[in-house]
Amino acid sequence: MRRGGAGLAASRKLQLRARGAAAEPARPRRPSRRWRLLRARGPRLPGGRRHPRVPEWEKACKTRVHPQNPFSLGRVFTMSVPDYMQCAEDHQTLLVVVQPVGIVSEENFFRIYKRISSVNQISVRDSQRALYIRYRHHYPPENSEWGDFQTHRKVVGLITITDCFSAKDWPQTFEKFHVQKEIYGSTLYDSRLFVFGLQGEIAEQPRTDVAFYPSYDDCATVEKRIEDFVESLFIVLESKRLDRATDKSGDKIPLLCVPFEKKDFVGLDTDSRHYKKRCQGRLRKHVGDLCLQAGMLQDSLVHYHMSVELLRSVNDFLWLGAALEGLCSASVIYHYPGGTGGKAGARRFPGSALPAEAANRHRPGAQEVLIDPGALTTNGINADTSTEIGRAKNCLSPEDIIEKYKEAISYYSKYKNAGVIELEACVKAVRVLAIQKRSMEASEFLQNAVYINLRQLSEEEKIQRYSILSELYELIGFHRKSAFFKRVAAMQCVAPSISEPGWRACYKLLLETLPGYSLSLDPQDFNKGTHRGWAAVQMRLLHELVYASRRMGNPALSVRHLSFLLQTMLDFLSDQEKKDVTQSLENYTSKCPGTMELLTLPDGLTLPPVPFTKLPIVRRVKLLNLPASLRPQKMKSLLGQNVSAKSPFIYSPIIAHSRGEERSKKIDFQWVQGDVCEVQLMVYNPMPFELRVENMGLLTSGVEFESLPAALSLPAESGLYPVTLVGVPQTTGTITVNGYHTTVFGVFSDCLLDSLPGIKTSGSTVEVIPALPRLQISTSLPRSAHSLQPSSGDEISTNVSVQLYNGETQQLVVRLENIGLEPLEKLEVTSKILTTKEKLYGDFLSWKLEDTLAQFPLQPGKVATFTISIKVKLDFSCQENLLQDLSDDGISVSGFPLCSPFRQVVRPRVESKPVNAAEGGRPGEPGHMKTLEAVLNFKYSGGPGHVEGYYRNLALGLHVEVEPSVFFTRVSTLPATSTRQCHLLLDVFNATEHELSVRARSDEELILHAGECQRMAIQVDKFNFESFAESPADKGQFANSKHLEEERQEARGLEINSKLDIHWTIISFSQTQGAQRAVFTECLLWVRCTPSAPRPLFSPSKTVALNQTLPSSSWAIQGAEPRHQRRLCWDENTRHRHSQSSRCKSENKVVEKRLINHLEQSFH
C-alpha cells in the first residue's frame, strides 16, 4: 500500500512518536468488568437479540453505575467507536438518541424511528435561524463525555419508545425510562417517552415528557410532538449559549477538559496568566460550538478565530486543533449549503436566498480576513443574521479550509487518546475535497486515516472501518482502491477468529467490488472490444465468489460464477487451469445443472445467464439450401418474373436503404414445411482436451420449428470443423435463425448470433413455403459412375447407365414412389440431350404417361411406374481410321465397333480379309464407342404447395454407351428380270463379337459370324420420287435451299427404309436369355444414286436418296470397269466442298470411305 506524499501520511511515524511526548496520562486504566459488561450488552429485541454496545436496563438499574462521574471506577478516557459517517455540517446539529425500552419489535421501532428522524430541521420561532437535529438509535455513552470538547458529540436529547398494555406494568416501564435517562443524564437537555398500547386513566393524564398512543397505527401527532421537543431543546441551548457568552468580569472562568486531561491539571497554578489564557481560549471555542448549533454562523466564526489566537499563544494543541476544525466546519457550512455528506436534502438558511455572490465563494485565491469583533451579537434570539452570513467576513476560503484541516489533524496526532477525533477529521476533510474535486489531496488524507492506530478493534469494527474507507475512495474516484478495501472487508467477515463466519455478508461485499476491478457479471460486456482490467485479479475475485456462494449453500450461484469465469477468462487461463476449472464445473453441475434462467439474489440483484459462446467457438453460420431434388420452384407468372407487384414505382429512394438491409438478412431460397432443413456451423475447440458438446440444436423465431439436437466430440484445438444442425419447420411464414443451444460441462446455453463476436453469416432469415410431396425415383438400370454436368448448372440427383449396340432399342422402367406426406397431383416429364457432337436419327427417348397419370393423385406411400424407350441410331461413318480392305475385290469397311473388354475379334471367313489391327485397331477398344448423355426432368407438385404455385424438379441422368453393330461396306445394283425392279447388292460386315443374323423384308436370313463380311441381295422395286412434290408450305418453312434439300432426302430415305425393312439379331443373346428380349435392331439404308449406264436401274433422270446427311451431290456406277473394280465417287459439288484436293484420283479412297460410312449409317 502506497503512503501519502509530502502531506500527512509521509510524517505518520513522527506523529505517532510525538503522541507520547504530550502532557497527558501515560495510559488509561483498563475498564472494570462490570462496565465492560454493560457496554457489551444492549436492549433485548425479538428473537433474544440485543443492540450492541448499549447497557442493559435491568443491570444499570440495580448497580446504579454513573459513567459520567469522572471519579467512577473503570472510567474510559477515549472514544471507543468512531463515527465514520461524520461530516463537517454535523457540527451544527444537536444529537438526539432514540432507543427502545423493554421488548419492542424491530419493525415497530424503526417504523416510529423513521417518522421521528424525518423532523431533522425546524425554523426557530420569531427568528430566521434554523435548528438541525441528528438522530441515532444507538450511541456509545463514553463518546458523550467529549461534549465539552465538541458540543455536537454531546447527547442533548433522549427519546424512548416502549410497549405497555396494562396499568400494572406502567411503574416498571417508567422506571426503565428513568434508568435510561441516567445514562446520559449529565448532558441531556430534555427527554421524551412514547408509550404505545396503554389506555385508560393513566394515558389521559397530561404529561410533557410522556406521550401515549393506543397503537402504532394510531399515532398521527408524533411529528408534532417531536417539533415541540426540538423547540424545548433550542430553549436550553440558547440559554447555555447566552450564559457562556456573557462577559462576567471578576468571575473565575472554569477550565473545560477532555476526559483524559482532568487529573493532569490537579495542583496547577490557577492564577497564572498562562492558565487563564488556556481557560479563555477553550471557553471561546466552546461558545463558538454553541453559536454554530444555535444557527449563528457569523458569531461562531468570530469565536473560533478568537479561540485560535488564544490557544496558539499557550500551545494548547489539542484544543487548538478543535478550534481550527470548528472554523473549517463553519466555513464549509457557508460555502456548501447543500452539505458534504451526500444527504438527500440541501440545507438552506431561512431567509437567505443565496444571492449571486455565493457563486464566487469557491473562487480560488479568496483569503481569510481579519477578525471583526463587531460582528458579535448580544441577543441571539431576535437577531437577524442574514446580512452577516451574506458578507461572512471571517469565513475561510475553500483552499484555506483544507490547510486548516491539515493543521488540526497534525495537532490531533500528538495525542494518543485523540485517535478517533483525528480519524473523523480526516473523513470530514475527504468529503470536502470530494466536492472540490481534489482527488489526490483527498487520497493523502485517506492514506493518513489508514495508518491511524486505534485501540484493539473488534471484527465488526474492522469491517465497518474498511467499508467506510472503500466508500470514501469511491467518492473521490479511486475505484480500484475502493474495491481493494471492500474486498478486505469481505475477507474480514470470514476471518478465522470469527466463530460464525458471515458468508452472506462476504458475498455481498465481494459483489460490490466488481465495478472497481472493471468486472461485470453480464457476459455481454465482454464482447464489446478489448478486455479491460487485470485478468489475474479478476479471476481471483471470481474464484472467491464461487467459494463464498458454495459456503452459503447456493450451488446455482456457484455454477453461474464458475461458468462466467470459464466464458470470460478463457483466453487468460493456462491449460492446467482450464482442466481444473472444467473439472470443478462438472462436479458442481452434477448436483445442480446450469440453466439460462435469471438468478435473483435476496437483495434484488439479478444475475444474467452465461451462454458458452466460446465452447465451442463459432466462426461462421450458413443456412443451406435444400437438395436439388427437393428445392421448390415457383411457376412462371404470366406477367413475368421481373415485374414486382409491391410498388407501382420503378425505383423508390426512400425505402431503398431499408430494402437493402432486408436483402442482406433474407436468403434467396426457400425452405419447405415439413422437410428437414440444415444450417452449417464452422466451429473450433479452444480447449487443450477433447470437447464433448451435447444437445446442440437451432434457436429460431417466426414459425413453429422442431429442432433435431445433435451431439459431437471435437478434438483438442481442432481448428475449424464443420457441424450441420437440422430441424423441421412445422408452419409456413418467415423463419429467422437466431442462434443455437448447447450443453457443455452440464451447463445449458442459448447462444445468439448477435452476441457472437466476429461471426460471418450470409443471412439468417428464410421463407418457408407450404408443404410439397416428395418423389423418389428408381429405375431398372444400374447406377452410373459417370456424373452428368449439364451446362445449365442443374444438379442431377440420380445417374443410370446402359450399354447398347447401334440401332438397338432398350426399355427403361421408371418407378415413382411418393415418400412425402402430401399427395402427388401433377407430373410432367421432359428430356434434354446433352450430347451435341453426335447426330441422332429418330427419337432417342420416348414414353407415354397416360396410364400413369390415370393413377393420380398418388397418395403418400403409393407407387406408380411407366416405361421409357431408349433407341440409339448414330452415325459411325466419320471414323476414317477404321477403313480396311476386307477382300481382293476392293470391298471397304467403315464404322465404330462398340468397346467391350470381354469381347474378342473373330477372324473373318476365307472369302473376307482379316482386319489389320495396325491400321484400324480392335473393335473392342474404348476409342471405338460413342457416348450419349441425356437428362430426364420430372416436374411434380401437389398439396398446399401446388395451390401456392410451387413445384419440384427431379433430374435423372442417363448415360448410354453405344458400340457399332453392322456395317454395309459396299452397295451396288444389278438388273432384274423385270424392268421395274432391280437387285440391291449389300456387303454386310459384323463388327460385333457375337454371331448375328440379318433379315430383310423377305424371310431369308443371313448368318454372320463375329468379324465376318458377306454379301446379300435384295430385290426391290424401282423408286419413283416424282410423288414427293414440293409444297408451298415447305418452301416457307425452311429459310434456305440447303435445309429444304435435307428434308427431301430425309423423306426419301424413310421411304426406302420402310420398303427394305432390314433388321439384325444377335443369336446367342436370344438363346441364352430366353426370358429376355432378343437383341433385335433395325438397319436403315438411305440410297441416293444417279444412273450412268445405257440401261438405267432406276427411273431415268431421277434421284434415289442414299442418306439424309449426304450433301446435294450425285454418284454413279461406272460401267466401263469390271464389277469388282467399281467405285463410288463424289461429283463436282462434293469436290468443291473439299477445295484442298486438286485431283479426283487422290480423293478416291477418302471419298469411298465417307460414302460407305453414310451408306452404313443409312442402314441403321
Automatic annotation (TrEMBL):
<dbReference type="InterPro" id="IPR058567">
    <property type="entry name" value="Ig_TRAPPC9_Trs120_3rd"/>
</dbReference>
<comment type="similarity">
    <text>Belongs to the NIBP family.</text>
</comment>
<dbReference type="InterPro" id="IPR058564">
    <property type="entry name" value="TPR_TRAPPC9_Trs120"/>
</dbReference>
<dbReference type="InterPro" id="IPR013935">
    <property type="entry name" value="Trs120_TRAPPC9"/>
</dbReference>
<feature type="domain" description="Trs120/TRAPPC9 N-terminal">
    <location>
        <begin position="264"/>
        <end position="337"/>
    </location>
</feature>
<dbReference type="Pfam" id="PF26282">
    <property type="entry name" value="Ig_TRAPPC9-Trs120_3rd"/>
</dbReference>
<dbReference type="InterPro" id="IPR058563">
    <property type="entry name" value="Trs120_TRAPPC9_N"/>
</dbReference>
<feature type="domain" description="Trs120/TRAPPC9 TPR region">
    <location>
        <begin position="440"/>
        <end position="587"/>
    </location>
</feature>
<dbReference type="Pfam" id="PF26251">
    <property type="entry name" value="TPR_TRAPPC9-Trs120"/>
</dbReference>
<feature type="domain" description="Trs120/TRAPPC9 third Ig-like">
    <location>
        <begin position="975"/>
        <end position="1074"/>
    </location>
</feature>
<feature type="region of interest" description="Disordered">
    <location>
        <begin position="1"/>
        <end position="33"/>
    </location>
</feature>
<dbReference type="Pfam" id="PF08626">
    <property type="entry name" value="TRAPPC9-Trs120"/>
</dbReference>
<feature type="domain" description="Trs120/TRAPPC9 first Ig-like">
    <location>
        <begin position="618"/>
        <end position="746"/>
    </location>
</feature>
<dbReference type="Pfam" id="PF26254">
    <property type="entry name" value="Ig_TRAPPC9-Trs120_1st"/>
</dbReference>
<dbReference type="InterPro" id="IPR058565">
    <property type="entry name" value="Ig_TRAPPC9_Trs120_1st"/>
</dbReference>
<keyword id="KW-0333">Golgi apparatus</keyword>
<protein>
    <recommendedName>
        <fullName>Trafficking protein particle complex 9</fullName>
    </recommendedName>
</protein>
<dbReference type="GO" id="GO:0005802">
    <property type="term" value="C:trans-Golgi network"/>
</dbReference>
<dbReference type="Pfam" id="PF26280">
    <property type="entry name" value="Ig_TRAPPC9-Trs120_2nd"/>
</dbReference>
